[in-house]
Design brief:
This protein has 254 residues and is α/β, with parallel strands linked by helices. It has a single domain, classed as Rossmann fold (3-Layer(aba) Sandwich), CATH 3.40.50. The chain is built from 9 helices and 7 strands. It has a 7-stranded parallel beta sheet with strand order 3-2-1-4-5-6-7, with helices on both faces. Strand 2, helix 2 and strand 3 form a beta-alpha-beta unit. Helix 1 packs parallel to helix 2, helix 1 crosses helix 9 and helix 3 runs parallel beside helix 5. The longest helix has 21 residues. The chain is globular and about 45 Å long. The model has no long low-confidence stretch (mean pLDDT 97). The structure holds nicotinamide-adenine-dinucleotide. The site of nicotinamide-adenine-dinucleotide (NAD) has 31 residues, from helix 1 and helix 7. The site of nicotinamide-adenine-dinucleotide has 31 residues, from helix 1 and helix 7.
């Protein structure tokens, strides 16, 4: 993977859920484009490995263990970012409960589990925005990318419910933060090959899903990086409040 032509030198980025899968690809993409990257994840070992992978390429990264559903933990993550890199410009809200999620229905899932799930998969992104926007404003603005999913538009129970809410959060926050020159957009990936998706989506179902795509192959994390970097870059300086599908043509919205 190259830097895809983007230049983020002088920019500090936090990528949550960057200990593997798509978040790792976003963190690597940003670092290769010159950003100083905080590789944040609840899995300390995983984020340390990704940070080491970036550092071994003579690029800049710092691993930070975080639980995005815990306000103190999120505040700590932002504090470390400011201490180590001097500020925050960019935030990628990618972390979510996905690979290990309990498969159940909205009408039967244990209520405490559902609340804990939404604390991470919906409110986690909001907590990270609340903890970073003032730091972004103090540097003249910033950009945020939230990780949605095509599941927001399809039946997928509480996973889709949280992703639809992430879309709405994106639009609401774009309005609240626009006057501070902070842009908020979202990416809705289609079925993308990661350890987590291999764990949670049965192979037969994945095969039929892939056959239904206009571009009939499973996406790779690298397929999503260009959109993420574009939305974080100044080339997207008049784009906010939008959800961009990167999905092989899975869901074509009017
Ligand atoms: N893989 C796909 O097909 C696909 C498709 C659409 C959207 N997505 C979304 O993309 C993102 C990444 O998915 P992935 O396939 O790479 O899965 P993944 O499980 O590898 O990534 C999620 C990361 O979030 C971390 N995480 C979980 N809870 C956390 C918490 N409380 N605090 C901090 N970190 C936490 C996990 O440790 C993990 O590293 C998720 O938001 C997922 O919903 C994935």
């Amino acid at each position: 993977m190259t830097n895809l032509g983007w230049d983020f030198s002088g920019k500090v980025a936090i990528v949550t859920g960057a200990g593997g899968g798509i978040g790792r690809a976003y963190a690597l993409g940003l670092a290769r484009a010159g950003a100083q990257v905080v590789v944040a994840d609840i899995d300390q070992r995983a984020c340390e490995l990704v940070a080491q992978e970036i550092l071994s390429q003579d690029l800049e990264a710092k691993a930070v263990e975080v639980d995005i559903s815990n306000p103190d933990s999120v505040t700590r993550m932002v504090g470390i970012t400011q201490e180590v890199f001097g500020g925050v410009d960019l935030l990628v809200n990618n972390a979510a409960i996905f690979g290990d999620m309990k498969l159940d229905f909205l009408i039967t899932v244990d209520l405490d589990y559902l609340k804990g799930f939404l604390d991470v998969n919906l409110l986690g992104a909001l907590l990270c925005v609340r903890a970073t926007y003032k730091a972004m404003e103090s540097r003249g603005g910033g950009a945020i990318v939230n990780q949605s999913s095509t599941a927001a538009y399809l039946y997928s129970g509480y996973y889709g419910l949280a992703k639809a809410a992430i879309n709405s959060l994106t639009q609401q926050l774009a309005n609240e933060l626009g006057s501070m020159n902070i842009r908020v957009n979202a990416i809705a990936p289609g079925p993308t090959l990661t350890e987590a998706s291999a764990k949670v989506v049965p192979p037969d179902y994945m095969q039929s899903l892939v056959h239904s795509l206009a571009l009939p192959r499973q996406g790779l994390p690298e397929d999503l990086v260009g959109m993420c970097l574009f939305l974080l870059s100044d080339q997207a300086s008049w784009i906010t409040g939008h959800i961009f599908n990167v999905d092989g043509g899975q869901v074509m919205r009017p």
